[in-house]
Design a protein that fits this description.
Cobalt-precorrin-4 Transmethylase, domain 1, Methyltransferase, Cobalt-precorrin-4 Transmethylase, Domain 2, 5-stranded parallel beta sheet, 5-stranded mixed beta sheet, 10 strands, about 30% helix, uroporphyrinogen-III C-methyltransferase
């Protein structure tokens, strides 16, 4: 890292082991780290001992810094000749507002480097044993946000088109508006019995996974007290957790179903 530069870096979905080597390199060099709410303490422990750490997290329903103020703070720090690391949960360009921050920096002639990270919609589901693509299930996956700039249910999403075009739908930040999202998907033709998984605190020791269906998800969320941050996955790929729950296998538990899709075991299928 050079003085006056800002690195926009994805910290991954939570588990410190999922941070990239470029991210670790940045932590060891940065003079100041501006980090989000979903960046774990285990990751920040790798920072230089004398690095300044500035919290800039945004959590729904709680007081938080305005995006414009965060972006301009990065500009000010860089102009002071600091090596600035902007550390964001997941990937900075996947529902992370990294594009907005990078645009502001470049408009102020601040040099920027983008360091991608593992997005929660992929890495978090993988830790739950759910592949976002599986050739017996889907040839497309759609990632959507569960709220817009104002924190409301997005009104620009064409749920009919999404429902028809994508076998698997992954919803970020959707817990607050789960009833509206469920109703929109069912109104668009997704059946009540469609598999749904909700992964909370993904990749962390506190990870919780709820397997349910579209029709029963609201009652099950209430009964299990599932809360944000969480990823919602809708589609038959969720069934693969019955055989791919690798964390359960590590604990010595047997797979619940070696053929959850009813297609025959892979070594028995001719192509």
């Amino acid at each position: 890292m050079e003085p006056g530069w800002v690195w926009l870096c994805g910290a991954g979905p939570g588990d410190p082991g999922l941070l990239t080597l470029h991210g670790l390199n940045a932590l060891r060099q940065a003079d100041v780290i501006v980090y989000d709410a979903l960046v774990g303490e285990g990751i920040l422990d790798w920072a230089r001992a004398d690095a300044e750490k500035i919290y800039a997290g945004k959590r729904g329903g709680k007081p938080s810094a305005k995006q414009a103020d965060i972006s301009l703070r990065l500009v000010d720090l860089a102009k002071q000749g600091k090596r600035v690391l902007r550390l964001k949960g997941g990937d900075p360009f996947v529902f992370g507002r990294g594009g907005e921050e990078a645009q502001t920096l470049i408009q102020h002639n601040i040099p920027v480097r983008i360091v991608p990270g593992i997005s929660a919609g992929i890495g978090g589901l993988a830790y739950a044993g759910i592949p976002v693509t599986h050739r017996d299930v889907n040839q497309a996956v759609t990632f959507v946000t569960g709220h817009d700039q104002k924190g409301e249910t997005p009104t620009t999403l064409d749920w009919d088109a999404i429902s028809k075009a994508s076998g698997v739908i992954v919803i970020y930040m959707g817990m607050a508006h789960a009833p509206q999202i469920r109703d929109a998907l069912m109104a668009a033709g997704r059946p009540a019995g469609e598999p749904v998984a909700i992964v909370s605190q993904a990749t962390l020791a506190t990870q919780k996974v709820l397997e349910t269906t579209l029709g029963e998800m609201l009652d099950d969320i209430a009964q299990t007290e599932m809360g944000p941050p969480a990823i919602i996955c809708v589609g038959r790929a969720v069934l693969m957790r019955q055989v791919l729950d690798w964390q359960a296998l590590m604990r010595g538990e047997a797979p619940r179903n070696l053929d959850p899709l009813g297609r025959g075991r892979p070594d028995e299928v001719t192509t």
